[in-house]
Automatic annotation (TrEMBL):
GO terms for cellular component: cytoplasm. Keywords: Cytoplasm, Disulfide bond, Electron transport, Redox-active center, Transport. The keyword Disulfide bond applies. This is Glutaredoxin. Signal peptide: none annotated. One of its GO terms (molecular function) is glutathione disulfide oxidoreductase activity. Pfam families: Glutaredoxin. GO terms for biological process: cell redox homeostasis; cellular response to oxidative stress. Residues 2-85 form the GST N-terminal domain. Has a glutathione-disulfide oxidoreductase activity in the presence of NADPH and glutathione reductase. Reduces low molecular weight disulfides and proteins. Belongs to the glutaredoxin family.
């Protein structure tokens, strides 16, 4: 299973929804809470092409995007394949 990284903030309902879906899929992930690690915001911006909103989700080297993008992959039947690579 590829490494999954989720950039979050403490009070973010979309972050909670994204993490819930990943947990439902049995995917382990690294959570980078930008409230607790503000120095990593530049890392997120660089990896995401300047996207500032959270969550920003990465599966392996692929930038998935945010919560809605993650759920769209699930609805399209593509999420399992990404998590299995």
């Amino acid at each position: 299973m590829p490494q999954v990284t989720v950039y979050t903030t403490t009070v973010c309902p979309y972050c909670v929804r994204a993490k819930m879906l990943l947990q439902k899929k049995g995917a382990s992930y690294e959570e980078v809470n930008l409230d607790k690690e503000p120095g990593r915001r530049d890392e997120m911006l660089s990896k995401s092409g300047g996207k500032r909103t959270v969550p920003q989700i990465f599966i392996g080297d692929k930038h998935v995007g945010g919560c809605d993008d993650l759920y769209e992959l699930e609805l399209d039947g593509e999420l399992d394949g990404l998590l299995a690579d």
